[in-house]
Amino acid sequence: MHRLLRTFTALTAVAAFGLAAGCSSGPGSGDSGWSGKKEAVPPTGAKAARHSFWVDPQSAAARQVRQWEEEGRTQDAEALKRIAEQPMAEWPAGDDPAPDIREATAGAAREGRTAVLVAYNIPHRDCGRHSAGGAPDAGYYRQWLGSFAAAIGDSPALVILEPDAIPHIVDGCTPGQYHEQRYQLLSEAIQRLKRQPRVKVYLDAGNPGWITDAHKLTEPLRRANVDAADGFSLNVSNFQSDERTTAYGRTLSAAIGGKHFVMDTSRNGRGPLAGDRQDAWCNPPGRGLGTPPTDKTGDPLLDAYLWIKRPGDSDGPCRGGPAAGQWWPDYALGLVRNAKA
């Protein structure tokens, strides 16, 4: 399962995790900067979606639009605006997340918007596959997550916490000797992030094409302290349809006390690649953009459609793609051309 990766540099001294008993503000506290009201789903299309999220003017897609305009590729540039003009999640660096987070929250503050951030640095990440890496040990992770949270400050932010970390426990990919540590780190991370007064935290729970029985996630999510989070995230970097993901989310929500959820719709406009292929998630051909980001979903349990995976970033060196997390303009154009109508 690919995630956007940054080049790791030298170990940077960062703020301590600072977990103190009773410091968690608890789920739903504070002003997140977005309403959470569930209105009718807006028409699809880049400019039709209504949302409260920040659009990065320096995203890879935005820079590509400007380059193609300068080169006279006006048709392609116009098409790519369907990605560039949408809010996408920021995946801060694994050495020092603070600069990326400060840039995103400052940009969002100037526009009265909410930054969408992904914390993706858990030890033993991705079971050593395309997105292998993560913090070298628990102590480093606590420091990194503390710096992540501190950089948000009082700004409104929506945080997706550790894509794949729980599902990789459930499917057995993460060795058993690391499970207890992972539960503890996730629990502490939720508590630390919730000390920031305007942060919403969603613990990742995979997708319905992966752990097909949602009830298998119930106990692991509880052990990771999902009760203290605002909810869980689904379909990150995957292609499951809105309908299937929503039904799965409702089932899982009912099993864990009615928790809300968000879903990644960045590339699910055509659903998953047909067939039970092991690499169906990795740069599959013929996929398209899905429902544009919005916090007006019309569903009382579904807090937002989000573009968590940044459309056009490669899943890894498969099907002719560049390394995981690298911008791939040709694939981005394909997503636009096959976008959900």
How does the SSE layout of this entry go?
Layout: H1 60-70, H2 74-84, H3 98-111, E1 115-119, H4 138-152, E2 157-161, H5 165-170, H6 179-193, E3 199-204, H7 218-223, E4 231-234, H8 242-255, E5 260-264, E6 302-306, H9 329-337
Average pLDDT for all residues: 87
Share of helix among residues? 25-40%
- Strand order across the biggest sheet? 1-2-3-4-5-6
Individual helix count: 9
What share of the residues does DSSP label as strand, in percent?
5-15%
From the spread of the alpha carbons, the general shape counts as globular
Unreliable parts: 1-49
Can you summarize the main beta sheet?
6 strands, parallel
Number of beta-strand segments: 6
Span between N and C termini?
A: 27 Å
Structural class: alpha/beta
Helix and strand pattern: HHHEHEHHEHEHEEH
Q: What is Rg?
A: 18 Å
Polypeptide structure, described:
The chain is an alpha/beta fold and 341 residues long. The protein has nine helices and six strands. It has helices at residues 60-70, 74-84, 98-111, 138-152, 165-170, 179-193, 218-223, 242-255, 329-337, and strands at residues 115-119, 157-161, 199-204, 231-234, 260-264, 302-306. Strands 1-2-3-4-5-6 form a six-stranded parallel β-sheet. α3 runs parallel beside α4. The radius of gyration is 18 Å and the shape is globular. Mean pLDDT is 87; it is low at 1-49.
